[in-house]
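Fold it.
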Amino acid sequence: MICYFSAGSFAQWRDDADRIPAQAIGNTLDGWDDERWVDTRDAAVRDMLAARLDLAVERGCHGVEPDNVTA
């Protein structure tokens, strides 16, 4: 089973939205008004991304499909 993994975006409706500091949230994704780019150099963002990958493991995913990685 391959699981979707947003590796570069923030959306207020996601369960982990509160983990992203305001200074790490960037521009809106083209075509997705409710999603914004995140600064993956930010330590809090990297921790959130690691937690997303851990969740994929917990749910039994055999791999992830990273999305929202290019502008």
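The mean pLDDT is 93.
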